[in-house]
Amino acid sequence: SLSAAFREYLRHLGLHDFPCGLGSWNKSCLSGHRRPRGVRPGQDEEPVLDEESPEVLLELLRDQHSPWALPPDCSPQDQLLREVAVLAPELIHGSKICQVLKSLRMVDKGVEEIDEGVLQFQQLEELVLSANQISRITSANLPRTLKVLELCCNTVGDLQDLCAQPPPELQHLGLGHNRLRGPSRDKFLTEDFWPNLISLDLSFNNLSDLLGLVSQLSSLQKLRILVLQGNPLALIPTYRGFLVDSLPRLSILDDIHIGHDERQQFHGLARQPELSRSEARVVVSVGETKGVPDTSTLQQLEVGSKAPVITYSYFVSYEF
Questions:
Q1: CA–CA distance from 189 to each of 117, 156, 201, 214, 314 (Å)?
Q2: Partners of 200 in the beta sheet?
Q3: What is the distance between the terminal CA atoms of the chain, rounded to a whole angstrom?
Q4: Which of 60, 70, 75, 290 is 20 to 30 A off residue 225, Cα-Cα?
């Protein structure tokens, strides 16, 4: 589950170990205040060496030469949590840490399920779960504050569970490199489910019905960015022009800005759906081949020869 993966992730960060968390290095935090470093209670000058200031502890995390520094390729999320564990160590206990994060990235962590524990992230606005093993999204377990949901490179096959109680403020939905087919008869890609959606990534799925998909997307009043490349429907000759004319509010299609000239070029194409048939023609040219005997070099058999005849046949298959 996502909650279990997050707990394991925190364990590897070592938030309870020096220089993070609570210990002899900052034990004055236990009393709710901090005395000057190196001064015992009731004394002015006698130094003690068992406690450090927050500034020194942060320096141990940030200095690249420090043995406690995170690797250079660590994420901003890693750095934030480590620094929170220094400045407010009381927040790393129990579920309090969940209330600190507005963005959570759990990439390639083997997550299969978005469980109910995710609701503890009461301020979460961005959830990135790319490259996991998620096939089903229980929308009731998603925080209602969510604005970005990225699920690229999972195994999502349909949107029924996600659309049961979708986050109402969601602005970006990333479903690239999944197993979506469609469009679904239940029409889950409409404004009824995503009234605030600005950006939608459906690239590299199994979408083939361009007309059916456009009929749904046209209801998304705020949609400005759309990615559909890698789907079979992108092979249709009039694919881009039909989308540009059918969705006049779009600003970017397949990572390419839609300019005024392009809109003028394809003006009126949306009124000719017969040009956007769900079929495509693919021309394949076979170049050099290796390992195939050249029959022109074989000796011709004499007329009337009773020698056995050897024939060769080859085939090439294409899967779409």
A1: 27, 15, 12, 10, 45
A2: 173, 226
A3: 34
A4: 75
Where the chain has pLDDT below 70, the residues are: 22, 24, 26-50, 91, 93-94, 183-186, 276-281, 294-304, 320
CA-wise closest residue to 86 among 182, 1, 17, 158: 17
Chain Cα centroid distance, residue 237: 29
Both structure tokens of 229 = 């490349």
In the DSSP assignment, the letter for residue 301 is P
How many C-beta atoms lie closer than 10 Å to residue 123's C-beta? 12
φ and ψ of 257, to 5 deg: -65, 140
Helices and strands counted in the chain (H then E): 6, 10
* 90-106 per-position pLDDT tens digit: 767 667 788 888 899 99
Residue with tokens 């299609």: 253
Give per-residue pLDDT as tens, 227-249.
Answer: 999 999 998 889 999 999 999 99
Torsion, CA 255, CA 259, CA 265, CA 271, rounded to 10: 70
Q: Is 167 exposed, middle or buried (0-12, 13-18, 19+ CB in 10 A)?
A: buried
